[in-house]
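Standup notes
- DV: blocked on the single-chain target, sequence here:
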Amino acid sequence: MRLLERMRKEWFMIGIVLAIAGAKLEPSIGVNGGPLKPEITVSYIAVATIFFNSGLSLKTEELTSALVHIKLHLFIQIFTLAFFPATIWLFLQLLSITPINEWLLKGLQTVGCMPPPVSSAVILTKAVGGNEAAAIFNSAFGSFLGIVITPLLLLLFLGSSSSVPFTSIFSQLFMTVVVPLIIGQIVRRYIKDWLERKKPPFGAISSSVLLMIIYTTFCDTFSNPNIDLDKFSLILILFIIFSIQLSFMLLTFLFSTRNNSGFTPADTVAIIFCSTHKSLTLGIPMLKIVFAGHEHLSLISVPLLIYHPVQILLGSVLVPTIKSWMVSRQKGVKLTRPTV
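- DV (later): unblocked, structure below
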């Protein structure tokens, strides 16, 4: 199962490259008003499909066992949806004086505003042997919170496209995000046994629809002759994203392992991954809605497209190290317990 998940993620990364290359070769197909009609098929149908799919796949019935760890949940959600975006905003005040493309910098801010992903943090926590129930709860709960909080954070830090009023953004978010998600959860309640038995490829469905959204987003970019992305800015953004990811992983580790933190080593593992990972599946559709019609939407999306594979790569590389630390700490705790 783990091998299949890894293969799916690798193919998805290849799919992103092919989608961007396809948009570069023939942008006229996916632009607004083109044959694909993305103003309808993407803005409404594709986005709604992703969140209906999320509603079907979210196992909210398994989250009750994790509800008691309130301190752990508060730490993760506050770090993810408050500390992370605020810190990125402060960091960007320094980067604004550099020659880095301003729209890529704005894209870094969108990364900070995103909710945690539903899958990668859980998979990596499970691979290490950490608190999987807490990872599942915070990934799912963070996704629900993100539906409301992420658009607000985006509007707070960046504003929106002037052509799309505030009320229009939230009415579209409600119809294409909240309603499909709720319907998906209701449908799941009636066909839960069938879903558990057949195990539909939820990840593959969402990934396919997401590739379509990425393709049409970059079609808009490549059809606009006024947009120019310099390689220097792209390389610097890649380096900055690696640095941010590592720094926040270290920071959450230090916070959660300090004396009297109250967190177990297994909790720390869940905190490291859930607090620092960001959702591409939920993020790209939200950017598409909040920045609808924005000529620099694709550039704003680039840092999130980079952050996604970076978090999986770094997480996978660090799994053995984090696992050995957790095992040694757990052994240390057992040795220090008094015998009765």
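- Follow-up: DSSP finds twelve helices and no strands in the chain.
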